[in-house]
TrEMBL record:
Gene: rag2
Species lineage: Eukaryota, Metazoa, Chordata, Craniata, Vertebrata
The protein, known as: V(D)J recombination-activating protein 2
Quaternary structure annotation from Swiss-Prot or TrEMBL: Component of the RAG complex composed of core components rag1 and rag2.
Region (Disordered) residue spans: 361-412
Subcellular compartments: Nucleus
Length: 532
């Protein structure tokens, strides 16, 4: 077990207490940012990439058929595994409850899954809201959610948490006061969304921020905090759920040797049911520096003391800490930088590696050997459009020649969207903000047709209005940037001065002409004298 100090390169202020981490086949995603999402990342979900002591957050997009997912703090998150391990179902995560940046509590259930994985590790996620019916759990946070499998079926177990006071008891004085949720166990059928509430005599008080572990048809609850008594008793419960044909059967028993902890981080080691509990609190002002290994098997639960890393002075002296499990034996821990005004960031970040480097190397070597022994299969249609590159090559993190790496992203300041398009270019990758409604993560660009190959320029540097930019993108017209507009005009042949063409008026054949009488001068004088 080792402790490593890491530096967050970008968006460090978005990582705050209450965030959650999800691991999809080695890719770690951060959910529950601080504040509401910005236009740079409207989903509020970031891909966390760690390399050589540096942590980078990359915005992640959702597919078109996804629903809106608000940033939720302290939700209940669990991995949804298929009933049949040999099936081709993708890994999914369940997200329930949580607190929004407006301190509103959510009672909705979301299912997060990996939609697609493109070149250069660009990942698209899918978020679907599951509609719940029946005895729906009230909005809450600080609770847990687990999956149980029994008799070829699966169900979701929800327990604990905190919520606001009931509407009848909520007044102006206690408007933001929290209370423990009722100690009911909710069973959710994910196929139909049916929710059923169960009352067990072993659960007498509500509890929140506890630890829950599940294996097959059993769920274990450790520790937790009770607001009514402001205590953290060393509790350990085992909840057994049998999914029978008629109605499910629930039973609970109180086990000895419980743990007194709250807000601890749980990570799983490998495919076996071996977990490690890191961090947390034993009281309101005392952090828990001990680590425990928990093993679940057919005989029950086994809790053992584990060696702890060498905690730094900043960790021991800080009043609070927070974090999440990155999977594969790694834990991300954040510590507030208290009293350090000179620091630009407000938190220190550490990564605790629970597995030794030798074990990780042997595991990776074994996986590569097993991969070489597999028969080569033809590429699917979706794998043939990788710009003449091998899809497996793009996903290999250990190859540094032509594969995607973090240095390639830094080179975007010289190529791609962040190129210096002209002498007056003021688009910077570190300070750029969207200016057009069509922009999301990258600046809008337009192609200049000067020369044989041409070049791309930023629409903002060319002072193009949004209407003109949309018009040029829709019409098949050539555009020349400000630097080449005068050059192109000088190369054009001056227009010849042509004399205007005279068009004689056409006579109207049916025009009525007044009748003229032919009279001699004598007659004219006679008529003039007659009228006089």
């Amino acid at each position: 077990m080792s402790l490593h100090l890491v530096s967050v390169i970008n968006s460090a202020s978005l990582i705050h207490p209450g965030f959650s981490l999800m691991n999809f086949d080695g890719d770690v995603f951060l959910f529950g940012q601080k504040g509401w999402p910005k236009r740079a990342c409207p989903t509020g979900v970031f891909n966390v990439r760690y390399k050589q002591g540096e942590l980078k957050l990359h915005p992640v997009s959702f597919c078109n058929d996804s629903c809106y997912l608000p940033p939720l703090r302290c939700p209940a998150v669990t991995q949804l595994a298929p009933v049949n391990p040999e099936s081709c179902e993708t890994k999914q995560y369940l997200i329930h409850g949580g607190k929004t940046p407006n301190n509103e509590l959510s009672d909705r259930l979301y299912i997060m899954s990996l939609e697609s994985r493109g070149c250069n590790k660009k990942v698209t996620l899918q978020c679907v809201e599951k509609e719940l019916v029946g005895e729906i759990p009230e909005a809450r946070y600080g609770h847990t959610i687990n999956m149980v499998y029994s008799h070829g079926k699966r169900a979701c177990v929800l327990f604990g948490g905190r919520s606001y006071m009931p509407p009848g008891q909520r007044t102006t004085e206690n408007w933001n006061s929290m209370t423990d949720c009722s100690p009911h166990v909710y069973l959710i059928d994910l196929d139909f969304g049916c929710c059923t509430s169960y009352t067990l005599q072993e659960f007498t008080d509500g509890q929140s921020f506890h630890v829950s572990l599940s294996r097959k048809d059993s769920v274990y609850f450790l520790g937790g905090h009770t607001l009514a008594s402001n205590s953290r008793p060393p509790r350990l419960f085992r909840l057994r759920v049998e999914l029978l044909l008629g109605s499910p059967a629930l039973s609970c028993e109180i086990l000895p040797y419980g743990l007194s902890l709250t807000s601890a981080i749980v990570t799983r080691l490998g495919p076996d049911y071996e977990f490690v509990i890191v961090g947390g609190y034993t009281s309101e002002s005392r952090k828990r520096f001990e680590c425990n290994t928990v093993v679940l098997d057919d005989s029950g639960i086994h809790i053992m003391t584990r060696e702890t890393p060498e905690w730094t002075g900043e960790i021991r002296q800080s009043k609070t800490w927070f974090g999440g499990s990155m999977g594969e034996g790694s834990v991300l821990i954040g510590v507030p930088a208290e009293g350090r005004q000179a620091l630009s960031e407000s938190n220190y970040f550490y990564i605790v590696k629970l597995r030794q480097e030798e074990e990780l190397g042997q595991t990776c070597s074994q996986e590569s050997t097993d991969q070489e022994q597999e028969d080569s299969a033809p590429l699917e249609d979706s794998e043939e459009f990788y710009f003449n590159r091998d899809p497996d090559e793009l996903q290999d993190d250990d190859v540094d020649d032509d594969t995607y790496n973090e240095e390639d992203e830094e080179d975007e300041s010289q190529t791609g969207y962040w190129v210096k398009c002209c002498l007056r270019c003021h688009v910077d990758i570190n300070t750029w903000v969207p200016n057009y409604s069509t922009e999301l993560n990258k600046p809008a660009m337009i192609f200049c047709s000067k020369g044989e190959e041409g070049h791309w320029v930023h629409a903002l540097c060319m002072d193009l209005s949004e209407d003109l930019l949309v018009c040029l993108s829709q019409e098949n017209t050539k555009y020349f940037c400000m630097d080449h507009m005068e050059v192109v005009q000088g190369l054009q042949t001056p227009p010849q001065k042509l004399l205007p063409v005279k068009h004689p008026p056409m006579k109207n054949q049916h025009r009525k002409v007044p009748v003229k009488l032919k009279m001699s001068p004598a007659k004219k004088s006679f008529i003039r004298r007659l009228f006089e």
